[in-house]
Amino acid sequence: MAHAQTAHDAGKYYIPHGSKWPIVGAVSLFVMMLGAAALLNGVNIAPFIFWAGFASVLFMFYGWFGTVIGESQAGMYNAGVDRSFRMGMMWFIFSEVMFFAAFFGALYYARNLSVPWLGGEGARYLSNLFLWQDFEPTWPTNGPAAVGGAFETIPAFGLPAVNTAILLTSGVTITIAHHALQAGNRGVLKIFLALTFLLGFFFVYLQATEYAHAYHELNLTLGSGIYGSTFFMLTGFHGLHVTLGAIMLVVVWLRVMKGHFTPKQHFAFEAVAWYWHFVDVVWLGLFIFVYWL
Fold first, then answer.
1. Is residue 51 scored above 80 in pLDDT?
2. Cis bond leading into 140, ω under 30°?
3. Domain co-membership, 64 together with 178
4. Which residue, 53, 77, 101, sits at the end of a domain?
5. Is the model's pLDDT at 13 over the cut of 80?
6. What's the distance, Cα to Cα, between the start and end of the chain in Å?
7. Residue 49: which domain range?
8. Whole-structure pTM over 0.85, yes or no?
């Protein structure tokens, strides 16, 4: 502890000690992917392999993050480490932006380019191309049984509008919690941080309800042509991000309950808050371009 404080005062960059967690993570991911590949090939013990790898990944996360939290609470990190953490989180969010940009690009290509081309727009030789009887180059595209059959879309101003209100409200609650942390008001911090992850889990519950309605009553599935594929890929990956973000918020809330973070040093809180605002912005894009327009 004294050594760590001396290094901190001297302005030196903290060099982490040797750690087992990278190799544990690599082996765990390999086992999990091996199990996934075995599942696709019908191997009997594949589920055991996959879940063993998945449990090992969770163990790795718990141990590695626990180590980092312990080092942070011990005062081993200085301003240089804090800057590197912030830059790392910024690049991570940028990679997430590009991840969703690829799916939004696929949606744009299918909707604004491919479907009109199949109808003959801009390419005369496609105008006589026979796809199936009664094909219409409109969005969303209904198709024959081979590509999912006829389906209905989910109206924007139903559950999607409710979920939009929920996520926007969660963006407000986490901002209030952030200001409370900076002001040293831990009572308000605990309440509004808890409200944020509760809203996040409620969002995921409503989205699961929407999916059940789409599959069982609207015949809207992953097999419903290009519309079903883009719809479930975009909303599904976003739902996964909301779930992960809500879990991270729970971890931060538990740390707050233990007295972690100060008005000046709370990078973990800010990192999760940035991620949560990113999730909010992506959902606004989904609501406009997937549900509404």
1. yes
2. yes
3. no
4. 77
5. no
6. 58
7. 1-77
8. yes
